[in-house]
Design brief:
- The chain is an alpha+beta fold and 369 residues long.
- The chain is built from 14 helices and 5 strands.
- 58% of the residues lie in helices and 9% in strands.
- α6 runs antiparallel to α7 and α12 packs parallel to α13.
- The relative contact order is 0.13.
Protein backbone atom coordinates (compact mmCIF):
# COMPACT_ATOMS: atom_id res chain seq x y z
CA UNK A 1 0.00 0.00 0.00
CA UNK A 2 1.36 3.43 -0.97
CA UNK A 3 1.85 5.61 2.09
CA UNK A 4 3.23 8.66 0.39
CA UNK A 5 -0.18 10.30 0.16
CA UNK A 6 0.47 11.39 -3.40
CA UNK A 7 -2.05 11.19 -6.22
CA UNK A 8 -1.48 8.94 -9.22
CA UNK A 9 -0.54 12.01 -11.25
CA UNK A 10 1.99 13.01 -8.61
CA UNK A 11 3.50 9.53 -8.56
CA UNK A 12 3.74 9.47 -12.35
CA UNK A 13 5.40 12.89 -12.34
CA UNK A 14 7.87 11.71 -9.71
CA UNK A 15 8.78 8.68 -11.83
CA UNK A 16 9.12 10.86 -14.93
CA UNK A 17 11.55 13.20 -13.13
CA UNK A 18 13.81 10.24 -12.38
CA UNK A 19 14.17 9.49 -16.09
CA UNK A 20 17.24 11.52 -17.12
CA UNK A 21 16.77 11.20 -20.89
CA UNK A 22 13.06 11.90 -20.64
CA UNK A 23 13.62 15.11 -18.67
CA UNK A 24 16.48 16.18 -20.95
CA UNK A 25 14.32 15.58 -24.03
CA UNK A 26 11.43 17.51 -22.45
CA UNK A 27 13.62 20.57 -21.88
CA UNK A 28 15.06 20.27 -25.38
CA UNK A 29 11.52 20.34 -26.81
CA UNK A 30 10.71 23.33 -24.58
CA UNK A 31 13.82 25.07 -25.93
CA UNK A 32 12.78 24.35 -29.52
CA UNK A 33 9.29 25.75 -28.84
CA UNK A 34 10.91 28.91 -27.43
CA UNK A 35 13.14 29.17 -30.50
CA UNK A 36 10.14 28.73 -32.81
CA UNK A 37 8.08 31.39 -31.02
CA UNK A 38 10.88 33.96 -30.98
CA UNK A 39 12.50 32.90 -34.26
CA UNK A 40 12.76 36.41 -35.67
CA UNK A 41 14.29 37.71 -32.46
CA UNK A 42 16.98 35.02 -32.48
CA UNK A 43 17.63 34.74 -36.23
CA UNK A 44 20.36 36.98 -37.67
CA UNK A 45 18.23 37.60 -40.77
CA UNK A 46 14.99 39.18 -39.54
CA UNK A 47 13.25 39.53 -42.90
CA UNK A 48 10.03 37.56 -43.40
CA UNK A 49 10.88 33.88 -43.95
CA UNK A 50 14.59 34.78 -43.57
CA UNK A 51 14.54 35.27 -47.32
CA UNK A 52 17.26 37.88 -47.86
CA UNK A 53 20.09 36.56 -49.99
CA UNK A 54 22.73 37.50 -52.50
CA UNK A 55 23.87 35.05 -55.17
CA UNK A 56 27.41 36.38 -54.98
CA UNK A 57 27.80 34.73 -51.54
CA UNK A 58 25.90 31.52 -52.28
CA UNK A 59 26.98 28.19 -50.77
CA UNK A 60 29.62 29.65 -48.46
CA UNK A 61 31.13 27.49 -45.72
CA UNK A 62 30.24 27.86 -42.02
CA UNK A 63 31.96 30.84 -40.42
CA UNK A 64 32.07 32.82 -43.67
CA UNK A 65 32.57 36.52 -42.95
CA UNK A 66 32.08 39.40 -45.39
CA UNK A 67 31.89 43.17 -45.23
CA UNK A 68 28.29 44.30 -45.70
CA UNK A 69 27.23 47.79 -46.74
CA UNK A 70 23.67 48.89 -46.04
CA UNK A 71 22.46 51.09 -48.87
CA UNK A 72 20.25 54.14 -48.30
CA UNK A 73 16.59 53.14 -48.24
CA UNK A 74 14.05 55.03 -50.33
CA UNK A 75 11.31 54.49 -47.75
CA UNK A 76 11.11 54.84 -43.99
CA UNK A 77 9.73 51.46 -42.99
CA UNK A 78 7.38 50.96 -40.08
CA UNK A 79 9.17 49.26 -37.19
CA UNK A 80 6.18 47.66 -35.47
CA UNK A 81 6.72 45.31 -32.52
CA UNK A 82 4.76 42.62 -34.41
CA UNK A 83 7.81 42.18 -36.66
CA UNK A 84 9.46 40.34 -33.78
CA UNK A 85 6.97 37.50 -34.38
CA UNK A 86 6.20 37.78 -38.10
CA UNK A 87 9.47 39.11 -39.48
CA UNK A 88 10.06 42.33 -41.37
CA UNK A 89 7.90 42.56 -44.51
CA UNK A 90 10.80 44.24 -46.30
CA UNK A 91 14.46 43.51 -46.94
CA UNK A 92 16.97 46.12 -45.89
CA UNK A 93 18.94 46.97 -49.06
CA UNK A 94 22.50 45.81 -48.46
CA UNK A 95 25.32 44.44 -50.55
CA UNK A 96 28.40 42.32 -49.73
CA UNK A 97 31.64 43.96 -50.82
CA UNK A 98 35.30 43.11 -51.29
CA UNK A 99 36.45 46.60 -50.32
CA UNK A 100 35.19 50.16 -50.11
CA UNK A 101 36.48 53.72 -50.06
CA UNK A 102 34.95 56.74 -48.42
CA UNK A 103 35.47 60.30 -49.64
CA UNK A 104 33.99 63.55 -48.45
CA UNK A 105 30.83 63.20 -50.54
CA UNK A 106 30.61 59.58 -51.80
CA UNK A 107 31.02 55.92 -50.92
CA UNK A 108 32.73 53.78 -53.54
CA UNK A 109 32.61 49.99 -53.15
CA UNK A 110 33.52 46.84 -55.05
CA UNK A 111 30.79 44.21 -54.95
CA UNK A 112 31.77 40.77 -53.66
CA UNK A 113 32.74 38.18 -56.26
CA UNK A 114 34.62 34.88 -56.07
CA UNK A 115 36.75 36.11 -58.95
CA UNK A 116 37.95 39.64 -58.01
CA UNK A 117 38.71 40.50 -61.65
CA UNK A 118 34.98 40.21 -62.40
CA UNK A 119 33.90 42.39 -59.48
CA UNK A 120 31.86 45.50 -60.25
CA UNK A 121 32.66 48.87 -58.69
CA UNK A 122 29.85 51.27 -57.81
CA UNK A 123 29.41 54.41 -55.82
CA UNK A 124 26.67 56.11 -53.83
CA UNK A 125 26.43 59.73 -52.69
CA UNK A 126 26.65 60.26 -48.93
CA UNK A 127 23.84 62.78 -49.26
CA UNK A 128 21.50 59.86 -49.98
CA UNK A 129 21.84 58.76 -46.37
CA UNK A 130 19.77 60.31 -43.61
CA UNK A 131 20.41 64.01 -43.02
CA UNK A 132 23.53 64.02 -45.17
CA UNK A 133 25.63 62.01 -42.73
CA UNK A 134 29.40 62.40 -42.58
CA UNK A 135 31.73 59.72 -43.92
CA UNK A 136 32.66 58.62 -40.39
CA UNK A 137 29.00 58.31 -39.36
CA UNK A 138 28.14 56.29 -42.47
CA UNK A 139 31.07 53.93 -41.89
CA UNK A 140 30.10 53.40 -38.27
CA UNK A 141 26.38 52.83 -38.82
CA UNK A 142 26.04 51.31 -42.30
CA UNK A 143 29.23 49.34 -42.87
CA UNK A 144 29.95 46.27 -40.77
CA UNK A 145 31.31 42.76 -40.85
CA UNK A 146 28.67 40.03 -41.07
CA UNK A 147 29.44 36.47 -40.05
CA UNK A 148 27.35 33.53 -41.30
CA UNK A 149 27.75 30.97 -38.52
CA UNK A 150 26.41 28.04 -40.57
CA UNK A 151 27.30 29.55 -43.92
CA UNK A 152 24.88 30.39 -46.73
CA UNK A 153 22.59 28.25 -48.87
CA UNK A 154 22.44 27.97 -52.66
CA UNK A 155 20.60 31.31 -52.87
CA UNK A 156 23.04 33.18 -50.63
CA UNK A 157 20.65 33.19 -47.67
CA UNK A 158 21.78 32.78 -44.07
CA UNK A 159 21.47 29.03 -43.32
CA UNK A 160 21.19 29.54 -39.55
CA UNK A 161 18.30 31.98 -39.95
CA UNK A 162 16.48 29.63 -42.34
CA UNK A 163 17.03 26.78 -39.89
CA UNK A 164 15.62 28.77 -36.96
CA UNK A 165 12.59 30.08 -38.84
CA UNK A 166 12.03 26.64 -40.40
CA UNK A 167 11.62 25.16 -36.92
CA UNK A 168 8.23 26.87 -36.80
CA UNK A 169 6.83 24.53 -39.44
CA UNK A 170 8.03 21.36 -37.70
CA UNK A 171 6.88 22.46 -34.25
CA UNK A 172 3.52 23.72 -35.54
CA UNK A 173 2.83 20.57 -37.57
CA UNK A 174 3.34 18.51 -34.44
CA UNK A 175 0.90 20.49 -32.30
CA UNK A 176 -1.79 21.04 -34.93
CA UNK A 177 -1.71 17.52 -36.39
CA UNK A 178 -1.75 15.88 -32.96
CA UNK A 179 -4.59 18.15 -31.83
CA UNK A 180 -6.67 17.18 -34.89
CA UNK A 181 -5.86 13.50 -34.43
CA UNK A 182 -6.84 13.65 -30.74
CA UNK A 183 -10.16 15.38 -31.38
CA UNK A 184 -11.19 13.01 -34.18
CA UNK A 185 -9.63 9.87 -32.69
CA UNK A 186 -11.02 10.31 -29.17
CA UNK A 187 -14.51 11.01 -30.53
CA UNK A 188 -14.68 7.95 -32.79
CA UNK A 189 -12.85 5.70 -30.34
CA UNK A 190 -15.12 6.70 -27.45
CA UNK A 191 -18.41 6.14 -29.26
CA UNK A 192 -17.18 2.86 -30.77
CA UNK A 193 -16.00 1.46 -27.43
CA UNK A 194 -18.98 2.68 -25.42
CA UNK A 195 -21.92 1.88 -27.67
CA UNK A 196 -20.46 -1.21 -29.41
CA UNK A 197 -22.63 -3.11 -31.88
CA UNK A 198 -23.15 -1.54 -35.30
CA UNK A 199 -21.54 1.72 -34.20
CA UNK A 200 -18.37 -0.12 -33.25
CA UNK A 201 -18.45 -2.16 -36.46
CA UNK A 202 -18.81 0.97 -38.61
CA UNK A 203 -15.99 2.86 -36.83
CA UNK A 204 -13.65 -0.14 -37.03
CA UNK A 205 -14.51 -0.59 -40.70
CA UNK A 206 -13.60 3.06 -41.29
CA UNK A 207 -10.39 2.69 -39.26
CA UNK A 208 -9.34 -0.43 -41.15
CA UNK A 209 -9.98 1.25 -44.52
CA UNK A 210 -7.83 4.26 -43.62
CA UNK A 211 -5.19 2.07 -42.00
CA UNK A 212 -4.89 -0.05 -45.14
CA UNK A 213 -3.82 2.98 -47.21
CA UNK A 214 -0.12 3.91 -46.95
CA UNK A 215 0.17 7.00 -44.76
CA UNK A 216 2.25 9.10 -47.14
CA UNK A 217 -0.01 8.21 -50.09
CA UNK A 218 -3.11 9.19 -48.09
CA UNK A 219 -1.53 12.46 -46.99
CA UNK A 220 -0.59 13.25 -50.60
CA UNK A 221 -4.15 12.55 -51.73
CA UNK A 222 -5.66 14.80 -49.04
CA UNK A 223 -3.08 17.51 -49.75
CA UNK A 224 -3.89 17.46 -53.47
CA UNK A 225 -7.60 17.64 -52.63
CA UNK A 226 -7.20 20.58 -50.24
CA UNK A 227 -4.46 22.28 -52.25
CA UNK A 228 -0.83 23.02 -51.54
CA UNK A 229 -0.17 25.25 -48.58
CA UNK A 230 0.83 25.67 -44.96
CA UNK A 231 -2.43 24.83 -43.20
CA UNK A 232 -3.55 22.27 -45.76
CA UNK A 233 -0.56 20.11 -44.83
CA UNK A 234 -1.41 20.35 -41.13
CA UNK A 235 -4.99 19.21 -41.72
CA UNK A 236 -3.90 16.42 -44.08
CA UNK A 237 -1.39 15.00 -41.59
CA UNK A 238 -3.84 15.25 -38.70
CA UNK A 239 -6.58 13.44 -40.63
CA UNK A 240 -4.30 10.46 -41.24
CA UNK A 241 -3.13 10.01 -37.64
CA UNK A 242 -6.44 9.74 -35.79
CA UNK A 243 -6.89 6.02 -36.46
CA UNK A 244 -4.20 5.00 -33.96
CA UNK A 245 -5.74 7.21 -31.30
CA UNK A 246 -9.21 5.80 -32.05
CA UNK A 247 -8.06 2.18 -31.64
CA UNK A 248 -6.33 2.90 -28.36
CA UNK A 249 -9.27 4.89 -26.94
CA UNK A 250 -11.75 2.22 -28.08
CA UNK A 251 -9.85 -0.49 -26.23
CA UNK A 252 -9.59 1.62 -23.08
CA UNK A 253 -13.27 2.54 -23.12
CA UNK A 254 -14.37 -1.07 -23.66
CA UNK A 255 -12.48 -2.09 -20.52
CA UNK A 256 -13.41 0.86 -18.31
CA UNK A 257 -17.14 0.83 -19.13
CA UNK A 258 -17.42 -2.54 -17.34
CA UNK A 259 -16.20 -1.08 -14.05
CA UNK A 260 -18.47 -0.46 -11.09
CA UNK A 261 -18.27 3.33 -11.05
CA UNK A 262 -19.64 3.40 -14.62
CA UNK A 263 -22.46 1.06 -13.62
CA UNK A 264 -23.21 3.34 -10.68
CA UNK A 265 -23.29 6.38 -12.97
CA UNK A 266 -25.80 4.64 -15.22
CA UNK A 267 -27.91 3.69 -12.21
CA UNK A 268 -27.99 7.34 -11.16
CA UNK A 269 -29.41 8.22 -14.55
CA UNK A 270 -26.44 10.12 -15.94
CA UNK A 271 -26.49 10.73 -19.68
CA UNK A 272 -24.15 8.75 -21.92
CA UNK A 273 -22.24 11.90 -22.91
CA UNK A 274 -21.55 12.73 -19.27
CA UNK A 275 -20.45 9.19 -18.49
CA UNK A 276 -18.10 9.12 -21.48
CA UNK A 277 -16.49 12.54 -21.11
CA UNK A 278 -16.58 12.96 -17.32
CA UNK A 279 -15.94 9.42 -16.08
CA UNK A 280 -14.50 7.12 -18.74
CA UNK A 281 -12.19 9.30 -20.85
CA UNK A 282 -10.31 10.89 -17.90
CA UNK A 283 -9.40 7.36 -16.79
CA UNK A 284 -8.19 6.30 -20.23
CA UNK A 285 -5.85 9.16 -21.12
CA UNK A 286 -2.53 7.60 -20.04
CA UNK A 287 -1.92 5.55 -23.23
CA UNK A 288 -3.33 8.41 -25.33
CA UNK A 289 -0.70 10.78 -23.92
CA UNK A 290 2.03 8.29 -24.79
CA UNK A 291 0.81 7.76 -28.35
CA UNK A 292 0.46 11.53 -28.81
CA UNK A 293 4.20 11.94 -28.17
CA UNK A 294 4.92 9.34 -30.87
CA UNK A 295 2.47 11.07 -33.22
CA UNK A 296 4.38 14.33 -32.76
CA UNK A 297 7.46 12.64 -34.16
CA UNK A 298 5.51 10.98 -36.96
CA UNK A 299 3.89 14.28 -37.98
CA UNK A 300 7.28 15.98 -38.24
CA UNK A 301 8.63 13.20 -40.45
CA UNK A 302 5.55 13.11 -42.68
CA UNK A 303 5.63 16.88 -43.18
CA UNK A 304 9.31 16.71 -44.02
CA UNK A 305 8.61 14.01 -46.57
CA UNK A 306 5.87 16.13 -48.14
CA UNK A 307 8.16 19.17 -48.27
CA UNK A 308 10.84 17.05 -49.90
CA UNK A 309 8.30 16.04 -52.55
CA UNK A 310 7.24 19.65 -53.04
CA UNK A 311 3.79 19.18 -51.45
CA UNK A 312 4.54 20.67 -48.03
CA UNK A 313 5.09 24.27 -47.01
CA UNK A 314 5.57 26.23 -50.22
CA UNK A 315 8.44 28.66 -50.95
CA UNK A 316 9.44 31.10 -49.66
CA UNK A 317 8.33 29.59 -46.32
CA UNK A 318 11.36 27.69 -45.00
CA UNK A 319 10.94 24.14 -43.75
CA UNK A 320 13.54 21.55 -42.85
CA UNK A 321 12.21 19.10 -45.42
CA UNK A 322 12.27 21.77 -48.10
CA UNK A 323 15.84 22.73 -47.17
CA UNK A 324 16.92 19.11 -47.57
CA UNK A 325 15.17 18.94 -50.93
CA UNK A 326 16.94 22.08 -52.17
CA UNK A 327 20.39 20.91 -51.10
CA UNK A 328 20.53 17.10 -51.04
CA UNK A 329 22.60 17.11 -54.24
CA UNK A 330 25.26 19.17 -52.45
CA UNK A 331 26.08 16.07 -50.37
CA UNK A 332 28.16 14.77 -53.29
CA UNK A 333 29.34 18.23 -54.32
CA UNK A 334 31.52 18.76 -51.25
CA UNK A 335 29.09 20.82 -49.16
CA UNK A 336 27.02 18.25 -47.26
CA UNK A 337 26.32 20.61 -44.34
CA UNK A 338 23.64 22.35 -46.42
CA UNK A 339 21.47 19.22 -46.20
CA UNK A 340 22.90 17.77 -42.98
CA UNK A 341 22.09 20.84 -40.85
CA UNK A 342 18.28 20.60 -41.24
CA UNK A 343 18.53 16.80 -41.21
CA UNK A 344 20.32 16.76 -37.85
CA UNK A 345 17.88 19.31 -36.42
CA UNK A 346 14.98 17.11 -37.49
CA UNK A 347 16.67 14.01 -36.08
CA UNK A 348 17.19 15.63 -32.67
CA UNK A 349 13.61 16.90 -32.45
CA UNK A 350 12.08 13.57 -33.46
CA UNK A 351 14.39 11.70 -31.08
CA UNK A 352 13.40 14.05 -28.24
CA UNK A 353 9.70 13.35 -28.78
CA UNK A 354 10.33 9.59 -28.89
CA UNK A 355 12.37 9.75 -25.66
CA UNK A 356 9.62 11.74 -23.94
CA UNK A 357 7.09 9.18 -25.15
CA UNK A 358 9.16 6.32 -23.71
CA UNK A 359 9.56 8.18 -20.42
CA UNK A 360 5.83 8.85 -20.21
CA UNK A 361 5.09 5.18 -20.93
CA UNK A 362 7.31 4.11 -18.04
CA UNK A 363 5.92 6.79 -15.71
CA UNK A 364 2.30 5.94 -16.43
CA UNK A 365 2.79 2.17 -16.18
CA UNK A 366 1.03 1.31 -12.93
CA UNK A 367 2.53 -2.19 -12.92
CA UNK A 368 6.11 -0.92 -12.95
CA UNK A 369 7.90 -0.31 -9.68
Amino acid sequence: MDKTGKSLTGLALQKFKKNFWGVLSFWFIALMVFVALFAYVLAPDKTKNANWGDLSISSKSPGFTVTMITLPAATNYDKSWTHYFTGRPYAVPKVPVLDYKLSADSLTYTEYADEPSLAVTKSVALSAYNNGMTAQAVEKEYIQKQKFILGTDSQGRDLLSRLIVGSRVSIAIGFVAVFISLVVGIFFGAIAGYFGGKTDAFVMWLVNIIWSIPTLLLVIAITLALGKGFWQVFIAVGLTMWVEVARVVRGQVMGIKQMQFVTAARALGYRDARIIFSHILPNSMAPVIVISAANFASAILVESGLSFLGLGAQPPVPSWGGMIKDHYNYIILGKPYLALAPGIAMLLLVLAFMMVGNALRDALDVKAK
